[in-house]
Amino acid sequence: MMRDHHRLASLATRRLVSRNGPLHTEAGQLSIEGLPSQEIVQRLGTPVLVYSSARLRDNIEQAVDAARACPFPIRIHYALKACYLAGVVGLMREAGLNVEVMSEFEYLLSRRVGFAPDQVVVNGPAKRPEFLERAVSDGVALINVESLAEVAFLDALGQRLGKAVQVGLRINPLPSRHLRGPFAPPGSKFGFDVPTGEAAAAVRRIIRARGLSLRGVHCHSYTRRYSPEAHRAHVASVVRFVRQVEGTLGVRIPVLDLGGGFGSRSIMEADGGPLRSFIAEMSDPLVGLSGDREIVIEPGRYLVNDAAVCLTTVLSCKVNGGRRWVVVDAGRNILPPRKNAEYAVVPCEPRPGRTRYHVGDFLCMPSEPIPLSFVSGPIEPGDHLAVFNAGAYTFSMAQSFGEPIPSAILVDKTDWTWLYRKKSIEEQWRGLSGQT
What distance separates the 2 farthest-apart alpha carbons in the chain? Predict the structure, then answer.
Protein backbone atom coordinates (compact mmCIF):
# COMPACT_ATOMS: atom_id res chain seq x y z
CA MET A 1 0.00 0.00 0.00
CA MET A 2 2.79 2.41 0.86
CA ARG A 3 6.50 2.40 1.62
CA ASP A 4 6.29 2.26 5.45
CA HIS A 5 2.80 2.73 6.82
CA HIS A 6 3.77 3.35 10.44
CA ARG A 7 6.56 5.74 9.58
CA LEU A 8 4.47 7.71 7.08
CA ALA A 9 1.50 7.99 9.46
CA SER A 10 3.79 9.25 12.21
CA LEU A 11 5.55 11.74 9.94
CA ALA A 12 2.25 13.02 8.57
CA THR A 13 0.91 13.47 12.11
CA ARG A 14 3.99 15.31 13.30
CA ARG A 15 3.76 17.59 10.29
CA LEU A 16 0.07 18.19 11.05
CA VAL A 17 0.67 19.21 14.68
CA SER A 18 3.66 21.38 13.77
CA ARG A 19 1.48 23.68 11.70
CA ASN A 20 -0.86 26.35 12.99
CA GLY A 21 -3.99 24.34 12.25
CA PRO A 22 -6.88 23.11 14.38
CA LEU A 23 -4.71 20.36 15.90
CA HIS A 24 -1.28 21.63 16.80
CA THR A 25 1.32 21.95 19.53
CA GLU A 26 1.08 25.23 21.38
CA ALA A 27 3.02 26.35 24.47
CA GLY A 28 4.53 22.91 24.86
CA GLN A 29 1.33 20.87 24.69
CA LEU A 30 -1.21 19.60 22.21
CA SER A 31 -4.09 21.97 21.52
CA ILE A 32 -7.36 21.28 19.72
CA GLU A 33 -8.71 24.54 18.26
CA GLY A 34 -7.02 26.49 21.03
CA LEU A 35 -8.33 24.22 23.78
CA PRO A 36 -5.36 22.66 25.62
CA SER A 37 -5.47 18.88 25.84
CA GLN A 38 -4.60 19.13 29.53
CA GLU A 39 -7.75 21.15 30.13
CA ILE A 40 -9.87 18.54 28.38
CA VAL A 41 -8.30 15.74 30.41
CA GLN A 42 -8.75 17.58 33.69
CA ARG A 43 -12.42 18.18 32.93
CA LEU A 44 -13.39 14.84 31.37
CA GLY A 45 -10.72 12.32 32.28
CA THR A 46 -9.46 9.72 29.83
CA PRO A 47 -9.87 8.06 27.49
CA VAL A 48 -11.87 10.58 25.52
CA LEU A 49 -12.39 10.93 21.77
CA VAL A 50 -12.00 14.55 20.65
CA TYR A 51 -13.18 15.78 17.25
CA SER A 52 -12.21 19.14 15.76
CA SER A 53 -15.09 20.82 13.95
CA ALA A 54 -12.65 23.07 12.07
CA ARG A 55 -10.70 20.10 10.69
CA LEU A 56 -13.93 18.32 9.77
CA ARG A 57 -15.19 21.37 7.88
CA ASP A 58 -11.84 21.85 6.16
CA ASN A 59 -11.78 18.20 5.06
CA ILE A 60 -15.31 18.58 3.69
CA GLU A 61 -14.31 21.76 1.86
CA GLN A 62 -11.29 20.06 0.30
CA ALA A 63 -13.49 17.22 -0.95
CA VAL A 64 -16.11 19.59 -2.36
CA ASP A 65 -13.45 21.71 -4.10
CA ALA A 66 -11.88 18.57 -5.61
CA ALA A 67 -15.28 17.46 -6.92
CA ARG A 68 -16.02 20.88 -8.40
CA ALA A 69 -12.70 20.86 -10.26
CA CYS A 70 -13.68 17.64 -12.04
CA PRO A 71 -15.14 18.02 -15.57
CA PHE A 72 -17.83 15.48 -14.66
CA PRO A 73 -20.56 16.13 -12.07
CA ILE A 74 -19.69 14.39 -8.81
CA ARG A 75 -22.03 13.60 -5.94
CA ILE A 76 -20.26 13.07 -2.63
CA HIS A 77 -21.94 10.50 -0.38
CA TYR A 78 -20.40 10.35 3.08
CA ALA A 79 -19.83 6.70 4.09
CA LEU A 80 -21.80 6.67 7.32
CA LYS A 81 -20.06 3.57 8.68
CA ALA A 82 -16.92 5.64 9.24
CA CYS A 83 -18.52 7.51 12.16
CA TYR A 84 -22.04 7.33 13.60
CA LEU A 85 -21.80 10.31 15.97
CA ALA A 86 -24.77 12.54 15.15
CA GLY A 87 -22.83 15.78 15.69
CA VAL A 88 -20.23 14.68 13.14
CA VAL A 89 -22.76 13.37 10.63
CA GLY A 90 -24.75 16.59 11.03
CA LEU A 91 -21.78 18.60 9.77
CA MET A 92 -21.80 16.49 6.60
CA ARG A 93 -25.48 17.21 6.03
CA GLU A 94 -25.10 20.93 6.77
CA ALA A 95 -22.30 21.11 4.19
CA GLY A 96 -24.62 19.70 1.52
CA LEU A 97 -23.10 16.24 1.25
CA ASN A 98 -25.16 13.12 0.66
CA VAL A 99 -24.82 9.82 2.51
CA GLU A 100 -24.10 6.12 1.86
CA VAL A 101 -25.46 3.41 4.17
CA MET A 102 -25.06 -0.36 4.45
CA SER A 103 -27.97 -1.29 6.73
CA GLU A 104 -31.39 -0.24 7.95
CA PHE A 105 -29.84 0.97 11.19
CA GLU A 106 -27.56 3.32 9.27
CA TYR A 107 -30.43 4.41 7.04
CA LEU A 108 -32.66 5.30 10.00
CA LEU A 109 -29.75 7.12 11.65
CA SER A 110 -29.15 9.16 8.49
CA ARG A 111 -32.84 10.07 8.33
CA ARG A 112 -32.81 11.06 12.00
CA VAL A 113 -29.89 13.40 11.33
CA GLY A 114 -31.89 15.01 8.52
CA PHE A 115 -30.87 13.42 5.22
CA ALA A 116 -33.71 13.05 2.72
CA PRO A 117 -34.26 9.64 1.07
CA ASP A 118 -33.08 10.94 -2.31
CA GLN A 119 -29.72 11.77 -0.70
CA VAL A 120 -29.10 8.13 0.24
CA VAL A 121 -27.23 5.40 -1.63
CA VAL A 122 -27.81 1.92 -0.19
CA ASN A 123 -24.95 -0.59 -0.31
CA GLY A 124 -24.22 -3.91 1.38
CA PRO A 125 -23.63 -7.52 0.31
CA ALA A 126 -26.99 -8.53 1.84
CA LYS A 127 -29.97 -6.43 2.92
CA ARG A 128 -32.99 -7.42 4.98
CA PRO A 129 -36.23 -7.62 2.94
CA GLU A 130 -37.98 -5.14 5.24
CA PHE A 131 -35.15 -2.67 4.72
CA LEU A 132 -35.37 -2.98 0.95
CA GLU A 133 -39.13 -2.39 1.10
CA ARG A 134 -38.62 0.70 3.25
CA ALA A 135 -35.89 2.05 0.98
CA VAL A 136 -38.00 1.58 -2.16
CA SER A 137 -41.13 3.05 -0.57
CA ASP A 138 -39.21 6.07 0.72
CA GLY A 139 -37.55 6.67 -2.66
CA VAL A 140 -33.81 6.42 -1.97
CA ALA A 141 -31.46 7.66 -4.66
CA LEU A 142 -30.00 4.24 -5.54
CA ILE A 143 -29.88 0.67 -4.29
CA ASN A 144 -26.76 -1.19 -5.37
CA VAL A 145 -27.63 -4.89 -5.73
CA GLU A 146 -25.13 -7.66 -5.05
CA SER A 147 -26.92 -10.95 -5.77
CA LEU A 148 -29.45 -12.41 -8.20
CA ALA A 149 -31.71 -13.14 -5.23
CA GLU A 150 -31.72 -9.43 -4.41
CA VAL A 151 -32.44 -8.63 -8.06
CA ALA A 152 -35.40 -11.02 -8.05
CA PHE A 153 -36.79 -9.63 -4.78
CA LEU A 154 -36.62 -6.02 -5.96
CA ASP A 155 -38.09 -6.97 -9.35
CA ALA A 156 -41.09 -8.57 -7.66
CA LEU A 157 -41.40 -5.60 -5.30
CA GLY A 158 -41.32 -3.11 -8.16
CA GLN A 159 -44.01 -5.02 -10.06
CA ARG A 160 -46.17 -5.21 -6.95
CA LEU A 161 -45.83 -1.47 -6.37
CA GLY A 162 -46.27 -0.63 -10.04
CA LYS A 163 -42.96 1.22 -10.30
CA ALA A 164 -39.49 0.60 -11.71
CA VAL A 165 -37.04 0.36 -8.83
CA GLN A 166 -33.83 2.22 -9.64
CA VAL A 167 -30.85 -0.05 -8.97
CA GLY A 168 -27.13 -0.10 -9.46
CA LEU A 169 -25.05 -3.24 -9.93
CA ARG A 170 -21.97 -3.83 -7.84
CA ILE A 171 -19.17 -5.26 -9.96
CA ASN A 172 -15.66 -6.57 -9.35
CA PRO A 173 -13.63 -5.76 -12.49
CA LEU A 174 -10.49 -7.34 -10.93
CA PRO A 175 -7.71 -5.09 -12.27
CA SER A 176 -4.12 -6.32 -12.44
CA ARG A 177 -2.94 -8.25 -9.39
CA HIS A 178 -0.53 -5.59 -8.10
CA LEU A 179 -3.33 -2.98 -8.21
CA ARG A 180 -6.07 -5.23 -6.86
CA GLY A 181 -7.66 -4.04 -3.64
CA PRO A 182 -8.85 -6.11 -0.66
CA PHE A 183 -12.50 -5.53 -1.54
CA ALA A 184 -12.27 -7.17 -4.94
CA PRO A 185 -10.72 -10.63 -4.69
CA PRO A 186 -12.10 -13.20 -7.14
CA GLY A 187 -15.16 -14.95 -5.82
CA SER A 188 -15.70 -12.64 -2.85
CA LYS A 189 -18.99 -12.04 -1.04
CA PHE A 190 -19.19 -8.65 -2.76
CA GLY A 191 -20.92 -7.98 -6.06
CA PHE A 192 -20.45 -9.80 -9.36
CA ASP A 193 -17.08 -10.67 -10.92
CA VAL A 194 -16.53 -9.27 -14.39
CA PRO A 195 -13.99 -11.77 -15.83
CA THR A 196 -16.32 -14.75 -15.25
CA GLY A 197 -19.19 -13.10 -17.13
CA GLU A 198 -21.37 -13.04 -14.01
CA ALA A 199 -21.57 -9.23 -13.97
CA ALA A 200 -22.72 -9.08 -17.61
CA ALA A 201 -25.27 -11.83 -16.93
CA ALA A 202 -26.62 -9.81 -14.00
CA VAL A 203 -27.03 -6.80 -16.30
CA ARG A 204 -29.05 -8.92 -18.71
CA ARG A 205 -31.23 -10.15 -15.85
CA ILE A 206 -31.92 -6.59 -14.70
CA ILE A 207 -32.78 -5.17 -18.10
CA ARG A 208 -35.24 -8.03 -18.66
CA ALA A 209 -36.98 -7.28 -15.36
CA ARG A 210 -40.28 -5.43 -15.57
CA GLY A 211 -39.90 -3.98 -12.06
CA LEU A 212 -36.32 -2.66 -12.31
CA SER A 213 -34.43 0.14 -13.99
CA LEU A 214 -30.65 -0.14 -14.29
CA ARG A 215 -29.44 3.24 -13.13
CA GLY A 216 -25.78 2.65 -12.36
CA VAL A 217 -22.80 0.43 -11.69
CA HIS A 218 -20.96 0.41 -8.40
CA CYS A 219 -17.41 -0.67 -7.63
CA HIS A 220 -15.41 -0.36 -4.42
CA SER A 221 -11.97 -1.93 -4.64
CA TYR A 222 -9.76 -0.21 -2.09
CA THR A 223 -9.36 0.95 1.45
CA ARG A 224 -6.85 3.74 2.22
CA ARG A 225 -5.10 3.40 -1.13
CA TYR A 226 -2.53 6.20 -1.48
CA SER A 227 -1.64 5.79 -5.14
CA PRO A 228 -3.50 7.99 -7.65
CA GLU A 229 -2.50 5.49 -10.33
CA ALA A 230 -4.32 2.69 -8.50
CA HIS A 231 -7.50 4.76 -8.32
CA ARG A 232 -7.15 5.54 -12.02
CA ALA A 233 -6.84 1.81 -12.80
CA HIS A 234 -9.92 1.18 -10.68
CA VAL A 235 -11.98 3.68 -12.69
CA ALA A 236 -10.56 2.47 -16.01
CA SER A 237 -11.68 -1.09 -15.25
CA VAL A 238 -15.21 0.15 -14.46
CA VAL A 239 -15.32 2.17 -17.67
CA ARG A 240 -14.23 -0.85 -19.72
CA PHE A 241 -17.13 -2.84 -18.31
CA VAL A 242 -19.61 -0.03 -18.97
CA ARG A 243 -18.45 0.34 -22.57
CA GLN A 244 -18.70 -3.41 -23.08
CA VAL A 245 -22.25 -3.88 -21.78
CA GLU A 246 -23.55 -0.68 -23.35
CA GLY A 247 -22.15 -1.69 -26.72
CA THR A 248 -23.27 -5.31 -26.48
CA LEU A 249 -26.68 -4.94 -24.84
CA GLY A 250 -27.74 -1.54 -26.12
CA VAL A 251 -28.28 -0.06 -22.66
CA ARG A 252 -27.05 3.18 -21.14
CA ILE A 253 -25.79 3.44 -17.57
CA PRO A 254 -25.84 7.08 -16.41
CA VAL A 255 -24.37 6.71 -12.89
CA LEU A 256 -20.90 5.42 -12.06
CA ASP A 257 -20.59 4.86 -8.31
CA LEU A 258 -16.85 4.53 -7.73
CA GLY A 259 -17.01 3.92 -3.98
CA GLY A 260 -14.39 5.22 -1.57
CA GLY A 261 -10.96 3.91 -0.70
CA PHE A 262 -9.32 7.23 0.10
CA GLY A 263 -7.13 7.35 3.19
CA SER A 264 -6.67 9.98 5.86
CA ARG A 265 -6.25 13.40 4.33
CA SER A 266 -3.00 14.20 6.19
CA ILE A 267 -1.39 10.92 5.11
CA MET A 268 -2.73 11.22 1.57
CA GLU A 269 -1.20 14.66 1.20
CA ALA A 270 2.10 13.45 2.64
CA ASP A 271 2.32 10.47 0.27
CA GLY A 272 0.23 10.80 -2.88
CA GLY A 273 -0.88 14.41 -3.05
CA PRO A 274 -4.16 16.26 -2.42
CA LEU A 275 -7.55 14.74 -3.16
CA ARG A 276 -7.85 17.06 -6.17
CA SER A 277 -4.98 15.22 -7.88
CA PHE A 278 -6.63 11.85 -7.15
CA ILE A 279 -9.94 13.03 -8.63
CA ALA A 280 -8.15 14.43 -11.69
CA GLU A 281 -6.37 11.11 -12.22
CA MET A 282 -9.62 9.19 -11.75
CA SER A 283 -11.55 11.36 -14.21
CA ASP A 284 -9.17 10.75 -17.11
CA PRO A 285 -10.59 7.30 -18.07
CA LEU A 286 -14.08 8.84 -18.14
CA VAL A 287 -13.22 11.07 -21.09
CA GLY A 288 -14.97 9.89 -24.22
CA LEU A 289 -17.96 8.23 -22.55
CA SER A 290 -21.01 9.22 -24.56
CA GLY A 291 -23.85 11.23 -23.06
CA ASP A 292 -24.19 12.79 -19.64
CA ARG A 293 -22.72 10.82 -16.75
CA GLU A 294 -22.92 11.37 -13.02
CA ILE A 295 -20.10 10.20 -10.76
CA VAL A 296 -20.63 9.12 -7.16
CA ILE A 297 -17.80 8.87 -4.65
CA GLU A 298 -18.23 7.58 -1.10
CA PRO A 299 -15.46 8.95 1.15
CA GLY A 300 -15.56 8.22 4.86
CA ARG A 301 -12.06 7.92 6.29
CA TYR A 302 -10.85 10.96 4.32
CA LEU A 303 -13.50 13.20 5.86
CA VAL A 304 -13.29 12.20 9.51
CA ASN A 305 -10.15 10.23 10.38
CA ASP A 306 -7.55 12.92 11.00
CA ALA A 307 -10.15 15.24 12.53
CA ALA A 308 -10.10 13.35 15.85
CA VAL A 309 -7.63 12.30 18.50
CA CYS A 310 -8.08 9.90 21.38
CA LEU A 311 -6.58 11.31 24.57
CA THR A 312 -5.29 8.59 26.88
CA THR A 313 -3.34 8.33 30.15
CA VAL A 314 -0.23 6.25 30.74
CA LEU A 315 -1.08 3.78 33.52
CA SER A 316 2.20 1.90 33.68
CA CYS A 317 5.71 1.86 32.26
CA LYS A 318 7.91 -1.22 32.03
CA VAL A 319 10.85 -2.78 30.25
CA ASN A 320 10.38 -6.35 29.03
CA GLY A 321 12.52 -8.29 26.59
CA GLY A 322 14.47 -5.15 25.79
CA ARG A 323 11.31 -3.21 24.90
CA ARG A 324 10.15 -0.13 26.74
CA TRP A 325 6.39 -0.26 27.18
CA VAL A 326 3.81 2.34 28.09
CA VAL A 327 0.45 0.81 28.97
CA VAL A 328 -2.51 3.17 28.52
CA ASP A 329 -6.19 3.33 29.44
CA ALA A 330 -7.47 3.48 25.86
CA GLY A 331 -8.22 -0.04 24.69
CA ARG A 332 -10.07 -1.78 21.93
CA ASN A 333 -13.29 -0.44 23.41
CA ILE A 334 -12.56 2.76 21.45
CA LEU A 335 -9.54 1.91 19.25
CA PRO A 336 -10.39 -1.37 17.52
CA PRO A 337 -7.33 -3.36 16.39
CA ARG A 338 -7.51 -3.41 12.59
CA LYS A 339 -4.97 -4.01 9.88
CA ASN A 340 -6.15 -0.89 8.10
CA ALA A 341 -5.97 1.39 11.14
CA GLU A 342 -3.81 4.48 10.76
CA TYR A 343 -3.19 5.30 14.39
CA ALA A 344 -0.19 7.46 15.23
CA VAL A 345 0.83 8.30 18.80
CA VAL A 346 2.19 11.65 19.99
CA PRO A 347 2.81 12.77 23.59
CA CYS A 348 0.45 15.58 24.57
CA GLU A 349 3.49 17.36 26.05
CA PRO A 350 6.42 16.56 23.76
CA ARG A 351 9.80 16.18 25.46
CA PRO A 352 13.25 16.11 23.90
CA GLY A 353 14.76 12.66 23.65
CA ARG A 354 15.10 9.65 21.39
CA THR A 355 13.73 6.78 23.48
CA ARG A 356 11.42 4.42 21.62
CA TYR A 357 8.28 3.37 23.48
CA HIS A 358 5.88 0.64 22.50
CA VAL A 359 2.24 1.30 23.27
CA GLY A 360 -0.09 -1.30 24.75
CA ASP A 361 -3.53 -1.14 26.32
CA PHE A 362 -4.77 -2.17 29.75
CA LEU A 363 -6.79 -5.18 28.57
CA CYS A 364 -5.93 -8.84 29.10
CA MET A 365 -5.68 -9.50 25.37
CA PRO A 366 -2.54 -10.31 23.39
CA SER A 367 -3.38 -8.07 20.43
CA GLU A 368 -2.92 -4.34 20.85
CA PRO A 369 -5.34 -1.71 19.57
CA ILE A 370 -2.33 0.55 19.04
CA PRO A 371 0.30 -1.72 17.45
CA LEU A 372 2.65 1.24 17.20
CA SER A 373 5.56 2.91 18.87
CA PHE A 374 6.72 6.48 19.26
CA VAL A 375 9.95 8.30 20.07
CA SER A 376 10.10 10.75 22.97
CA GLY A 377 11.93 11.87 26.04
CA PRO A 378 11.17 10.18 29.38
CA ILE A 379 7.56 9.02 29.78
CA GLU A 380 6.06 8.35 33.19
CA PRO A 381 2.75 7.06 34.59
CA GLY A 382 0.19 9.85 34.57
CA ASP A 383 1.48 11.37 31.34
CA HIS A 384 -1.00 11.84 28.52
CA LEU A 385 -0.73 10.65 24.92
CA ALA A 386 -2.77 11.55 21.86
CA VAL A 387 -3.66 8.84 19.35
CA PHE A 388 -4.18 10.54 15.99
CA ASN A 389 -6.27 9.29 13.07
CA ALA A 390 -8.90 8.17 15.56
CA GLY A 391 -11.92 9.67 13.80
CA ALA A 392 -12.92 6.81 11.49
CA TYR A 393 -14.06 3.31 12.43
CA THR A 394 -13.41 3.93 16.12
CA PHE A 395 -16.68 4.96 17.72
CA SER A 396 -18.72 3.14 15.07
CA MET A 397 -16.89 -0.10 16.02
CA ALA A 398 -16.56 0.65 19.73
CA GLN A 399 -17.73 -1.77 22.40
CA SER A 400 -17.97 -2.06 26.16
CA PHE A 401 -15.03 -4.37 26.77
CA GLY A 402 -13.11 -3.96 30.00
CA GLU A 403 -14.69 -0.54 30.41
CA PRO A 404 -17.71 1.26 28.96
CA ILE A 405 -17.40 2.98 25.59
CA PRO A 406 -15.59 6.26 26.37
CA SER A 407 -17.03 9.74 25.95
CA ALA A 408 -16.64 11.75 22.76
CA ILE A 409 -16.77 15.52 22.31
CA LEU A 410 -16.74 18.05 19.47
CA VAL A 411 -14.49 21.09 19.91
CA ASP A 412 -15.40 24.33 18.15
CA LYS A 413 -13.24 27.39 18.79
CA THR A 414 -12.27 26.53 22.39
CA ASP A 415 -15.84 25.48 23.23
CA TRP A 416 -16.95 21.87 23.26
CA THR A 417 -20.18 19.88 23.20
CA TRP A 418 -20.98 16.27 23.94
CA LEU A 419 -21.09 13.83 21.06
CA TYR A 420 -21.47 10.86 23.36
CA ARG A 421 -21.42 10.60 27.16
CA LYS A 422 -19.96 7.46 28.74
CA LYS A 423 -22.58 5.37 30.50
CA SER A 424 -22.35 4.89 34.25
CA ILE A 425 -22.09 1.44 35.81
CA GLU A 426 -25.75 1.77 36.80
CA GLU A 427 -26.75 2.39 33.17
CA GLN A 428 -24.54 -0.47 32.03
CA TRP A 429 -26.07 -2.79 34.63
CA ARG A 430 -29.63 -1.95 33.61
CA GLY A 431 -28.80 -2.92 30.03
CA LEU A 432 -26.97 -6.11 30.98
CA SER A 433 -29.66 -7.21 33.43
CA GLY A 434 -32.55 -6.50 31.05
CA GLN A 435 -33.96 -3.74 33.24
CA THR A 436 -35.67 -0.77 31.63
Answer: 71
